[in-house]
Amino acid sequence: MQWIRGFAAAAVFFTGTSMAQAACVGSNVLDDLEQRDPEVYDGIFEMAAGVPNGEGRFWRVEHPGAPPSFLFGTFHTPQAVATVTPVIWSELDSARIAIFEMSLDEQAAMEQRLATDPSFAFDFNAPPLSSRLSSEQLGILSEALQTRGMSLQAAEQMRPWLLFTLLGFPACHIQAIAEGGDPLDKEMALRAGERDTPVMGLETYEEALGAFQRIRAERFLSMMVATGAMVADEEDVFRTNSDLYEDGHIAAINEFSIWLSEQQGVVSDSRALNTEIMAEILDARNRAWMPDLVREMRKGRAFVGVGALHLPGREGLVELLRARGFTVTRVDP
What we know:
By secondary structure, the chain is an alpha/beta fold. The chain contains 16 helices and six strands. The chain has helices spanning 4-15, 29-36, 38-49, 86-93, 104-116, 118-121, 135-146, 160-168, 171-178, 184-194, 205-213, 217-229, 234-246, 250-264, 270-299, 317-323, and strands at 58-62, 69-74, 97-100, 199-201, 302-307, 327-330. The protein has a six-stranded mixed β-sheet, with helices on both faces. It is globular, with a radius of gyration of 19 Å.
């Protein structure tokens, strides 16, 4: 979700407080699990191995009669900038066009709307959270929001996408971005612009947020409660996902999330819930992007940088491009 910078600024604005120190710390949960329960550890990676194209961040995309293009899976954090290899930067620098989930102009438009339109962040006609959740669920969300300097009352009619941002990323990460750290996607877009490379976005912010609106309200609330239950360990989770990303274990990021949710025991169908959410946040958007991606990649020398979880799976970009006649080959180690 490339729009995290705008969300992060909004999160700090709505809490009205500096939520945490900017530097995230934490330990890799899987390192401990490997020693403590190697069978469970292996199970996570075995599940990930069953996902098509589940390994790899960087892919060459070829079509007859055109020079190759490149598909790169990003991680929407400033810390991920340091994981990009010289080869990847070189392909971005030599690209004919650079393509990201959202253009810089579109991100700026979203941030402007956040600053000027209260109804963008809050749905004043929606039933309040307290009328839709059990007392146990409300307790989990309330405790999680307190770590963000926000009361449950203040979040009663908050739009799901903003609530997701408040709870889905560590407080330290949100604060770091709000204070000026650029996520990898934006860093790449700025670099392309400095070299006069045309920069294109695959969707508007309204189209991106539409993914949240298509998720059934009760399912989205279940995801919010499950996410809130992980807040106590959020920096360890963030570190684990960052390490998995750097090592190219992309499908394992999702499998780790499912396993962790199952350990929390807050929802009874963690895998089914994950599948339903990912179908909208990832798969539907992947399909919507294909006309633009196919057109530009047939011309060649396109550099595409989108969230890494958009790449693997039967509805991932790698498989969708192959189905449209492209040869897609992993090129990172």
